[in-house]
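Entry, Tuesday afternoon. Goal for today is a structural model of the target with 0WW bound, before we commit to ordering more compound. Inputs were pasted exactly as handed over by J.K., no edits. I checked the ligand SMILES twice against the vendor sheet because last time a stereocentre got dropped in transcription.
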Amino acid sequence: MTETFQFKLLATDGKARRGEVSMPRGTIRTPAFMPVGTVGTVKAMYLDQVRELGADIILGNTYHLMLRPGAERVARLGGLHNFIRWDRPILTDSGGFQVMSLSSLRKLNEQGVTFKSHVDGALYHMSPERSIEIQGLLDSDIQMQLDECVALPAEPNEIERAMEMSLRWAERCKAAFGDQPGKAMFGIVQGGDIPKLRERSALALRDLDLKGYAVGGLAVGEPQEVMLDMLDVTCPALPAEKPRYLMGVGTPDDILKSVAHGIDMFDCVMPTRSGRHGLAFTRYGRINLRNARHAEDTRPLDEQSTCPATRDYSRAYLHHLIRSNESLGGMLLSWNNLAYYQELMAGIRKAIEEGRYADFMAETQENWKRGDL
Ligand SMILES: O=c1[nH]cnc2c(CCNCC3CCCCC3)c3[nH]c(NCc4cccs4)nc3cc12
């Protein structure tokens, strides 16, 4: 807990880093997994549960909140923390990624993005400045620059155009954010799967001397090894003393490997979204509880777990709830999956502290191969 935003490197093991982000609202132990709080809630979870599982920070969804209930309304109600009753750090995205993936995008130019709301069809224009203003109205602790993420594969000149515009938007967001010691605005490295564009983006953002850096434009359709290769180009070009956030990543395997390539922070809808669809993440791999083979399996997902959802409910019952489309099914599997992700992060942090990350990776991946027996 500090009056200003600070990042401390506590230990390294190869490229893996164990650190700590300190902010007025709390401390974030890194490597960290940040559960996605979509419309002001981590779907199917109580935020007390999310905290109990070990989350130090959650994500707020700017795109949804600006449309409903509206950023000015959230501000009138005392900001997002009071609204959703989460008093620890919140990271909000710029809203841009979801405009491009959820809304009917009307225009994207130097000024920003113009789109029709998927809620009521109203027209919105979001500039880099307006995105920062909205995140400020939400009283967000870590705010993301507006950027343009290009899905892969893409034409090199398209990737270059989007990367250069994102750099100009980063400067505008930095100016709009100004000087807020207890908060941070992160830049987002773009450049697709082209090393020289990645390096140019990272070095230019480094010169802006921001408090933290996200690696964007990945986990958008490229193979995992391309993503990891881009981390090997991007991370060395970023300042070692600032946190690195790999956006939208990922599966447990993606996270394990990305930590080994120098990443500190992650966000992904996978544990909650796939939980609602019946997919359970366990220390022995994934289990799709929709599958009929679980119909009479009285075992819990993992009797050694401290999470009630994982330890106390039979696979037969979970199978039944998911097949019956009962809310409790999604609730229990979201609980299990977030518990697993946070347990994985705690194991990662401990292994780096003890200088045995390579062994931890190997053991974890070996266990996943066991399947659910
Ligand atoms: O360059 C990027 N710039 C900005 N955001 C990106 C995101 C969204 C990260 N999660 C935001 C959350 C904010 C709060 C609500 C939930 C999302 C990405 N997600 C992925 N892959 C996973 C993907 C998910 C869907 C399609 S790809 N790659 C991403 C790349 C970028």
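The two ends are 44 Å apart (CA to CA).
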